[in-house]
Amino acid sequence: MRRARAANPGRAASAGRILRPGRRRRLCAAPRSRPRRANPRSSTTPRRPPMPPPRRLLLIDDERLQHRLVGQMLRQFRGAHFDLEIASNCREGLEQLRSGGHAAALLDYRLTDGDGLSLLAEARAAGCRTPVIFLTANTGDDLDMAALEAGAVDYLEKAALSPKMLERSLRYALRLSESLEQLRQLATRDQLTGLLNRREFDRILGDELARCVRFDRPAALALIDIDHFKKVNDTHGHPAGDAVLQHVAGIIAAQARDVDFVARYGGEEMAVIMVETTAGAARVAMARMAAHLARTPCRIGELALPVTFSAGVAAVPDDGLTPAALIAAADHALYAAKRGGRNRVFSAQEAQLAQAVAV
Q1: CATH number attached to the domain at 198-357
Q2: Multiple choice CATH, 55-187, 3.40.50.1100, 3.40.50.150, 3.30.230.10, 3.40.50.2300
Q3: CB-based contacts of 318: which residues, under 8 Å, 6+ apart?
Q4: Is the pLDDT of residue 133 over 50?
């Protein structure tokens, strides 16, 4: 007869597992299975691009009903989004167009204090390039052509207007405006430096001098020549010369005021038209630019080229009242600065004094 074994306190018969003294087995329910969240990064669904910010749309119309109708149509657009701004007369409309910043403008033909054609012509004369769409109840035979000749990009009749038609017209106006701006950049900018080209410089200088003479206001012209530029090309090659041109152009453009006009005059020469500026103030500004350039070498790879320029300054009315006279005076001052040792700025008056002393 077999003896029964004594119970071992270190064993747990029910579990069939050995439990060490002093430890208890926890009894708990099985954890619930949680649904896994989809990883957005691993999702195959393409993300939608962020919505662009709404564009500013100017409505120049004196009818409140038209304000509401256009606002309702804008909310039905499927593509572009616009923030509607209202001008109720010609005066407000012209101020808004001159201020800029609008993606497009809707302009009524008849307003309480004038007509849309005259308003558009005045805005274009002031340099406004905002695309304008005529939106009117008048259906004259020649009004559409008159609007387009005045500078409008489209002509819409209020009676036939729909959200789809308005959205299409605005989309066309924006695309046309972008294309015209690209063409304008190609026609007015120097491709290497990004500065104004010689043709645009000549046009702006003529306009600014005419304004100065008419309103008896000052202005100054600075002609700039990079010192020893030919040596850079001969020693380091034309790519290095291009880099120097871009370097100098960038510094001059950054140092100039927003209201000034910076152009590539030709070769290694550049020009700055400084509006509302006397000869003394222009000379100080150019000397500051020259000092900044002298402290900032042009880096081409591991090469650091020191670069300086010489400049001549002429001003209205003392040194000339026509573009030809002002350019001649600034050019004379420029060569006086180069003869004086380069890396310096001469005014036209200083150049005349230096010439008189030399004689």
Answers
A1: 3.30.70.270
A2: 3.40.50.2300
A3: 279, 348, 349
A4: yes
